[in-house]
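Before relying on records like the one below, remember that each one covers exactly one chain. Contacts with other chains, cofactors or solvent are not represented anywhere in the record.
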Amino acid sequence: MDSMLPEEARFLKRKVKGGSIDVHPTEKALIVNYELEATILGEMGDPMLGERKECQKVIRIRTLNESTNVGNLAREIIDKCRLIHPTKLPEVEQLLYYLQNRKDTAAPTTGAKKKSELSERPLDGDLDATEINETANINEIEDYLELLYEDLPEKLRGSALVLQLARNPDNLQELFENETVVGALARVLREDWKRSMELSTSIVYVFFCFSSFSQFHGVISHFKIGALTMQIVEHEIKKYELWKEELARKKKACEADGKEKSAEKKTTTERRRSLMG
């Protein structure tokens, strides 16, 4: 990979071009087709390596029913999916109307999930850094790459799935050869590590898996993962020390408050005895 990612490569340029929108054949969902072009640029901005891929994003709308306001739902989808241009609002409305009136051919689902997947945004801690209730597939790596360009919850999910793959040594070579995925992981780590400890742990763990084999050390050096990891560790140590100091102050305040209340209680008891005597 050193020949494919030379030292003079510095920047990753990502370009997304929206495409057609279709309905899912069996689910209440829209399929957004788009083209993803990733280019590695040199210091002078000249393209050094590029790759273009056709991708798809599935938007599931499980709460769509006969009483759903299709117009409002279409606007919500366009607001939340940057792959769909606002000028496609009428097309999205038509597709939703078709889904609304189409006979459901999918298997019935339980009522446990009442919210639409579109609107769900789990909190930072809802996804464990190394555990996820989903099995990763190396053939779906482009889908996981897409998640790394979304909001924090999607980045958490995408990094956890990539980590699943990286923990299997059989997948490391293929991951290593996918410059776009490796570059995206390094970028997310560099930009978002302060936002989520879970996210940074997952990505650092991926690079740790690479570090177990000498042929992959080049990519770790190239993206300066070692220095960044030390920066993250130092930051967490400082946070831990601040938490310790704050805990000690609160403990001291509680002890002082307890002594003061004990003294007041003792004084009150002595006064009562004096009055009774």
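Residues 225-276 form the longest helix (52 residues).
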